[in-house]
Amino acid sequence: MSKLTTSNAWLSLQAHQSDMSQQNLYELFAQDSKRFERFSLKFNDILMDYSKHPVSQSTINLLLELARQQELENKISDLFCGKKVNFSEDRAALHFALRREEALILDGVDIMPEIHKVLAKMDRFISSIRNGERKGYSGKVFTDIVSIGIGGSNLGPVMVTEALKPYSLDHISSHFVSNIDGTQLSTVLKKLNSETTLFIIASKTFTTQETMANAHSALNWFLANGGGKNDVDNHFVAVSTNRTEVEKFGINADNMFQFWSWVGGRYSLWSAIGLPIALSIGMENFYSLLKGAREMDQHFIATPMKKNLPVILGLIGIWQINFFGNKSHVILPYDQSLHRFPAYLQQLEMESNGKRIDRNGNEVDYATGAVVWGEPGTNSQHAFYQLLHQGTQIIPADFLAPCISHNPMDEQHCLLLANFIAQTEALMSGNKNIEIDEKYEAELSDENFIKDLYKKVSPHKLTPGGRPTTSILFKKLDPKTLGSLIALYEHKVFVQSVIWNTNPFDQWGVELGKQLAGKILGELNNELQITSHDSSTNGLINYFKENRQQNLF
Fold it and tell me: Fewer CB within 10 Å: C terminus or N terminus of the chain?
């Protein structure tokens, strides 16, 4: 057993969970008319309601004691002081510096001037594209931006660009390519004109296999469709740390936007990785995005833990994962603009905290994360809410919605929010047999209604309730608010990593598959029968090789 699971704070929570699991969530509301006020928090225009979780004040006190035991406040200080919290890679994790204003010393050097230098370079470049000063090789203005990257170089920029489309320019269209499957890139390129297309190649090392394969294919398309080698530099820009590889590709270093080893991919949208975001929404709005995140950083640093949104959100997750044993977590944005938010959080949470080894190198004996998934409401209501309401697994849910819509067509936004609020109520309260009985009592007098059928149907109508939800309402989805929301979840992840004593800033688990892919690629490209792997891997390789030359169409 680990020190964590045998600690007083952990054992106290286990004992408390036995009591709380017997509590009816609906009755907790019936017993306390001020439950919402007790278990909700506000930050600027953001409201976070966690009252529809099986918590009492004792629960929160015990969770805060666990946080104190794990020295959460000290660990937050370590993070923001620039200590090497990413110990397995011997690095600080300074993504917050990308939206910071004050000096920050790393290895004796203030890193803020370099950050502001890159932002200024982004500003100049973006202005030249958006105002038409910088043109394509034929003298036409750029109309399309193709961003090529994968993982953190893609998920964050895609999510934010989609979320903030109301702030984008009409005459510039954004496209994103991540999948090495040629279908994605070819589908995008079919729509475009080489004369008016700008490519952004985003890769920290500029050696990422998927990204560089797509980048070279895009380059070949450009050269085959009117562009010359001398035009590459004007139509291709790089976001990278590797100047040598960027220049080898054919991009002048003047068209390279730097970021740094202390920025993890899934935390990097605030850096030059956010170049496609800024091209879409403009630099002023990009600065507002940074400001929103910076304000959440300040809240996280300075606010007492019991009133601290990231702390409470993280601890509620600990409560559900480790003490109620819930292995899944669904993200339900009631705003179509946030349709990529669940996918973004998948990487942020699962790549950060999906760890089996603690900071001391010991295998953990507790869960370190949930499976994160989701879709926008109300589409999801007509897809998988049946499982949420009546399934055998309890799946905690985060509901997110703006009070003001960018597209308030007729009464549709009120209808949307009515569904948002109703679903959280239904998941919490369920219905009772007596309610079902009353509803169908009148139907018993109907000669067409069969009493026996009613008896059979009645159990199927019952929803037990007690399904936990967190509701996050905000005034409007603008750049500043979105920045705060993203930072809220970033810090939630950090809070949970501190409790679990894991490193949320590395991702060694994704490396083995990449290494094996390199070996298998060579085997796929020769004519030999492969026998060097296990029988399944050999069989898959050989079957592919046998069939790839056949015309299947």
Answer: C
Helix (H) or strand (E) holding 147: strand 144-148
Q: What is the pLDDT along the chain (553 residues), one digit of tens a residue?
A: 789 999 999 999 999 999 999 999 999 999 999 999 999 999 999 999 999 999 999 999 999 999 999 999 999 999 999 999 999 999 999 999 999 999 999 999 999 999 999 999 999 999 999 999 999 999 999 999 999 999 999 999 999 999 999 999 888 999 999 999 999 999 999 999 999 999 999 999 999 899 999 999 999 999 999 999 999 989 999 999 999 999 999 999 999 999 999 999 999 999 999 999 999 999 999 999 999 999 999 999 999 999 999 999 999 999 999 999 999 999 999 999 999 999 999 999 999 999 999 999 999 999 999 999 999 998 999 999 999 999 999 999 999 999 999 998 889 999 999 999 999 999 999 987 555 555 555 555 555 555 666 667 778 888 999 999 999 999 999 999 999 999 999 999 999 999 999 999 999 998 888 889 989 999 998 889 999 999 999 999 999 999 986 544 4
Q: How far apart are the first and last CA of the chain?
A: 58
- Alpha-carbon dihedral sign for residues 270, 274, 275, 276: negative
Answer yes or no: 351 catalytic.
yes
Q: Is 490 a catalytic residue?
A: no
The fold for domain 97-288 equals Rossmann fold (3.40.50)
Amino acid at 384: F
What the block records as the tokens of 150 is 């994968």
Beta-sheet pairing, 46-49 with 469-476: antiparallel
Residue given tokens 């089996």 in the structure block:
356
CA nearest to 248, candidates 236, 263, 264, 266: 236
Tokens 């949208």 belong to which residue?
Answer: 269
The answer to whether residue 210 is catalytic is no
**Given the residues 37, 102, 363, 382, the one annotated as active site:** 382
Q: Please pick, among 162, 195, 210, 351, the residue that the annotation labels catalytic.
A: 351
Full-model pTM:
0.95
451, 514, 519, 546: which is the annotated catalytic residue? 514
Place of tokens 């892919």: 517
Cis peptide before 378 (omega within 30 of 0): yes
| CATH domain 509-547 topology | Phosphoglucose isomerase, C-terminal domain (1.10.1390)
Q: Where are the domains positioned within the chain?
A: 8-67+306-430+465-506, 97-288, 431-456, 509-547
- Evaluate whether 8-67+306-430+465-506 and 97-288 have a shared fold: yes
For residues 197 and 215, is the Cβ–Cβ distance under 8 A?
A: no
